[in-house]
Design a protein that fits this description.
Length: 54
C-alpha cells in the first residue's frame, strides 16, 4: 500500500469550493479536523481584507 492522505474540500450551496484543507495522514486525523472546524466555525473571526485601515 502506498502513502495515503486525506483532504477536505468545503463547498457552498452551489457546489463552489470555498476552502481546501491540507493533507491529513489518516482518516481519523481528518475527522478530528472536521470536528474542530465545526466547533470553531460559530466563534471564528471574519476579517475583511478588502478594508484599508486609516
Amino acid at each position: 500500500m502506498g502513502d495515503e492522505s486525506y483532504r477536505l474540500r468545503l463547498t457552498d450551496a452551489e457546489g463552489n469550493t470555498v476552502a481546501v484543507s491540507p493533507n491529513f495522514k489518516s482518516l481519523n486525523s481528518l475527522l478530528e479536523g472536521v470536528k474542530a472546524m465545526r466547533e470553531n466555525a460559530a466563534t471564528g473571526v471574519v476579517v475583511d481584507l478588502r478594508q484599508q485601515q486609516a
